[in-house]
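Project standup — Tuesday

K.O.: blocked on the structure for the chain from last sprint. Re-posting the sequence here as requested.
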Amino acid sequence: MSKKSRSLIAGGLTSSAGIFITKVLGIVYLPFLTALSGSTSTLSFYTKAYGYYNYVLLISSAGIPFAIATLVAKYYGKEDYKTMLLVRKIGISVMLVLGFVSMVLFMSLSGVLAQFTNSVQTSPEDIQKTINVYIIISMALFAVPLLSGHRGFFQGIKDFKTYAFSQILEQVARIAFMLSLGALAVYVFHKEGIWAVYFAVGSAAFSAVVAVLHLTFFRKGSVNEIRVLASKQESSAVDRKSLINEFMYFAIPFLLYSVFGSSNIIAHNLFFERAMDFRNVDVNTIQALNSMIGATTDKITSIPQVLALGFSPAIIPFITEAIERKDKKALKKNIMDAISAVLYIGLPICFFILVIPTEIYYVMYGKDFLLGGEVLRWATLTAFFGTVSPICNSLMMALRFRRQNLFILIVGFIIKMSITIPFIIWFGYSGDITSTAIVSAIIITFDLYIIHKEYQLDFKQLGKKIGGMLLALLVAYIAMILLQNSSFNVLQYKRVSGIFVLGVYGVIGLGIYFLITSFFKLPEEIFGFNLVKLFKKGRKKIQ
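H.V.: unblocked you, prediction finished:
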């Protein structure tokens, strides 16, 4: 297998592109699922199930698979193909066992969790519906870790195209399953909207199985190439016992990182509805807010977080190779490339969520757009910190600051679990979001301090780049204000027309951002190209 020269940014963008498409597809299907379910209250059962699913997904995709990717990248660099195959076998076996245990455990605890997490005002019928979605989602807890194990291998050999396509295929299969069977249940068999939710929850397991089959049978060529190279290898693989010890050395910290690094998901699922009871909010409003935070606004704020999901897998093999080569210059470059690229793309997306949240929510979902826009504006905090924090944590793990990183995450976990309930009681739903932002800011600060102390990063240069980005966004903000107070106010149009008007906002805002940042040569410094020069070159070809 030829080793193509790839940059961290190229790998991160390729992986991000695949995840971005899946997120866009996720945004597209949610309005249809909302219509099938009949109400935001019914949709809240989908949110409750996927809250735990997302937590396990984070563990399964950022834990052991990262260890698989790290070791595969390490032995790929050493051309030890036999050990690579052994890593794959051990890793997938571990994920298989982990998934089975997760499924059985979650099924067993579904009744207790349903009683504890729901508002005290929840009816027995709704408690049973919660139990049902928990049991259904438990099947995904078996399939998804297995899928992540397979993906870890392709991540390790830097085959990000396969990695990205697998994510797109999974999402397409998921949407086709949930909408087709949901529509069949509601419109043909005249079932209640909750049946659409049941199929939506069940689609996670179905789509994961489809993606596993694709990687196993249709992408086996990549594995077979490694097998051919292994058959020609004269040296033996690393001793199995030694390799398992090395695997655990990488896997356990990654696994603990995932557990303690997802405190926002745990705290929201466990405490939100019960804490909102203390504010004397009726159960329908609580469920609607839960749906907004966990589903409708989350789909939008997850767009910039695509960068974290895309760059985190790319960071591992590149940082690992640089460490193995003891190339400190390459390490520093990869670190700054990852941070700069994520900020350059992520900041304008978060900017739009902050400045025009009501317009975005109205176009996407229509109903309750005033409250939804308010929730979405607060959720900008989640969008930004949820993008930057995982990158910093992935860098910490890849740079092998495991003990420090674990300590920081445990402290963050304790703080989040301690302040969530009082913040929700004092400030309402925004307290849940704010407490997450505070914890993320603490984690980011300590992560960057530790990395800088070891590698003396050029934060002054990074600060100049960020200053150029913020200046461009300030000019774009003025343009957004002018548009909102003109005949191009999105809220004056019907939703279909509003999509095109919102597109005008995007073209103007991003155009300003790209032009001003190109004046400061930021795209050239970060990505290696200048947008203005490319435009002039393209115009000459046309002429």
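K.O.: great, moving the ticket to review. DSSP finds 21 helices and no strands in the chain. Residues 468 and 517 are 6 Å apart (CA to CA).
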